[in-house]
Amino acid sequence: MFQIKSDEEIELLRQSNLLVSATLAAVAGMMMPGMATNAIDKRAEEFIRDHGGVPGFKGYHGYPASLCISVNDQVVHGIPSARVLMEGDLVSVDCGVLLNGFHGDSAYTFTVGEVSPEKAKLVRVTRECLILGIKEAKSGKRVGDIGNAVQKHAEQNGFSVVREMVGHGVGRQLHEPPEVPNYGRPGTGPVLQNGLTIAIEPMINLGKRHIYQERDGWTIRTNDHKPSAHFEHSVAIREDGADILSDFMIIDEAVSKF
Ligand code: MF3
Ligand code: CO
User: Fold this and answer.
1) Residue 135 belongs to domain with CATH number
2) Which atom of ligand 1 is nearest to the CA of 105?
C-alpha cells in the first residue's frame, strides 16, 4: 500500500538519521542565553556538509534554512533569525539531512538554563508521548494506534495535541504517505507494514491546541501564546516493533556535558 523499504534502504535511512542526531548533539551546547538562532543554524549546516550530507529542509517549498528553531509559543517551522535565546526558553530544534539519497528527520526540544516547572513537565511529557507512540509502531497495528497513544498521554497530563501538523512517511522524499496524526482512535487508519518508515513527531501544547501561521509563511505559533514542545524520531516498522533510526542518546549526552 505504501512504499516499503528494503533492509539496505533502512540502513541508509539510519545513516541519514544518525547524521541528523549528531548535528543536534553538535548544537546542544549553543542553547544558552544570548545565542542567536541563526548562528545555531549556521553551525548545523557546516556540520552537515562537513559530514557529506546536504541540509534536507533548505529549499524545501522554499524553506530558507537548515534547521527549524521554534522558541516557546512557536510550535514548529520557526525560521532561524537574529533572535537571541533567553534563560527559561524552550527551544524545539528540527533537523533534516539528505545523505545517499535518503532523508533523515528528527527533532528535540532543548531548555535554556532553568525553565519553569510547567515547561519542564511539558518537555518530559512530550518526549514520553513520542516513546508511547513508537511503542504502537509495529507490523499489524494501525496509524490510529500511534495517535491514540500520544493523545491519551498528553491529555491525561492536562496538555493538548496540535491537529493540523502531523508526522509522515520518510525516505527518498522528506514527506511520504502516510500522514501520522498525533491523535486518533485505536484500530483506525492505515495498517502499519514491515519495512514502512515513518517520522513520528508529537507537537504538544501547554494550553489549548489551536495554532496559527505567522506572516513569514512558515512559523507556527499557539493562539494562546502558551509554550509548545516537539520531539521527532524516524523509525522503521518491524514485525516485533519499531526500529528507531535517529538517536537521542548522543543529544542527551551532549546536553549533560555543558
Ligand atoms: N520535521 C518537519 C516536518 O516534517 C520538518 C519541516 S521541514 C521544512 O514537517 F522544510 F518544511 F521546514
Ligand atoms: Co518531520
Assistant:
1) 3.90.230.10
2) 1
C-alpha distances in Å from residue 121, one per residue of 29, 97, 139, 210: 22, 29, 31, 20
From 179, 200, 176, 206, select the one nearest 190 (Cα to Cα). Answer: 179
Cell match 538562532: residue? 37
Residue 13 near residue 100, CB atoms below 8 Å: no
Domain count, the chain: 1
Residue type, position 18, single letter: L
Strand partners, 99: 102
| Residue 51 covered by a domain | yes
Q: In the structure grid, which three cell numbers stand for residue 19, read together?
A: 547524521
Q: Which residues pair with 236 in a beta bridge?
A: 197, 243
Give kind and range of the element (H or E) at residue 108: strand 102-111
Domain of 222, in residue numbers: 7-256
Three-state DSSP at 16 gives helix
Distance 76 CA to ligand 1 centre (A): 8
Grid coordinates representing 117 are 516547572
Report which protein residue has its CA nearest ligand 1's atom 7.
57
The answer to the question of residue 180 being in a domain is: yes
Is residue 1 in a domain? Answer: no
pLDDT in tens, 128-185: 999 999 999 999 999 999 999 999 999 999 999 999 999 999 999 999 999 999 999 9
> How confident is the model over 190-219, as pLDDT tens digits?
999 999 999 999 999 999 999 999 999 999
